[in-house]
């Protein structure tokens, strides 16, 4: 699948590889959620994540806070289709592309991220479009990882692919990953060799420093059309004052009528 050209980030190699700390949240990414269910007999649906932490919201937001990005989730609907409950990209009509074509925004998007929660994806924890919105999560595989603790950074990793990481301009390999000879602590290292956090305390900038984003990666993703700006506090204050002024004017006009 062909996507737009990558932006080349002009920076020194040291700057590109430097890990980032948490930053003020200035951008937001909204994810629309579709939960796939088995429609044969008793309805069984893919898991939505740990109890009290649906979609791994906590770890996903801590990881992307390094880029000043906040991730929010909007549950759209359940998808009752047994054929997509377990995804097998090796079978015609039973792949992620087929699922995405049938529901949500019907494929890769420059403005929207659809997340499909399925039971399993053959040979993978998840998949995501490269440089465009849309991903699938193999929830049974993810939840069973590490003795049932769950693979808590899979979603953040797939979001990275949607945002265009890891491009060749930043050293990415053919699969869009940080090469194995670079660092196992990078969020964009392949799942085959990435160091996976088991708790929030393991995630950069804390503890073991896992799931790092470099300054070069952050500069790159912040140009994505999938992100929305969060108004600065001063702008929000001015907006609140304007709304209060309008409300006051309306009250005075009613009092005079």
Q: What's this, in brief?
A:
With 257 residues, the protein is an alpha/beta fold. It is 27% helix and 18% strand.
Characteristics:
alpha/beta; Collagenase (Catalytic Domain); two-stranded parallel ribbon
What's the architecture of the largest domain, going by CATH?
A: 3-Layer(aba) Sandwich
Beginning-to-end CA distance, first to last residue:
63 Å
Number of strands: 9
Number of domains: 2
Uncertain parts? 1-17
Q: How much of the sequence is in beta strands?
A: 15-25%
Indicate the radius of gyration in whole angstroms. Answer: 20 Å
Largest sheet: 7 strands, mixed
Mean pLDDT: 85
CATH class of the largest domain: Alpha Beta
N-to-C SSE string, H for helix and E for strand: HEEHEEHEEEEHHHEH
**How does the overall form come out from the CA principal axes?**
globular
Helix amount: 25-40%
Named CATH topology of the largest domain: Collagenase (Catalytic Domain)
**What structural class do the secondary elements suggest?**
alpha/beta
| Total number of helices | 7
């Amino acid at each position: 699948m062909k996507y737009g050209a990558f932006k080349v980030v002009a920076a020194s190699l040291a700057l590109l590889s430097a890990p980032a700390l948490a930053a003020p949240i200035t951008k937001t990414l909204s994810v629309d959620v579709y939960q796939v269910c088995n429609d044969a007999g008793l309805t069984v649906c893919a898991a939505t994540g740990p109890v009290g932490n649906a979609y791994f919201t906590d770890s996903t937001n801590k990881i992307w806070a390094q880029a000043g990005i906040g991730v929010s989730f909007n549950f759209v609907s359940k998808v009752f289709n047994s054929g997509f409950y377990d995804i097998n990209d090796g079978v015609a009509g039973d792949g992620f592309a087929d699922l995405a074509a049938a529901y949500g925004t019907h494929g890769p998007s420059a403005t929207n991220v659809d997340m499909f929660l399925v039971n399993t994806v053959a040979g993978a924890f998840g998949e995501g479009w490269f440089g465009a919105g849309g991903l699938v999560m193999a929830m049974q595989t993810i939840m069973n990882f590490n003795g049932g603790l769950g693979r808590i950074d899979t979603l953040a990793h797939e979001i990275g692919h949607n945002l265009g990481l890891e491009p060749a301009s930043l050293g990415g390999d053919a699969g869009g990953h940080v090469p194995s000879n670079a660092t196992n602590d990078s969020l964009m290292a392949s799942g085959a060799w990435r160091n996976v956090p088991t708790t929030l305390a393991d995630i950069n900038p804390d503890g073991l420093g896992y799931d790092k984003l470099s300054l070069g990666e952050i500069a790159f993703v912040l140009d994505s059309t999938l992100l929305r700006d969060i108004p600065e506090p001063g702008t929000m204050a001015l907006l609140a004052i304007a709304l209060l002024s309008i409300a006051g004017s309306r009250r005075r006009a009613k009092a005079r009528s």
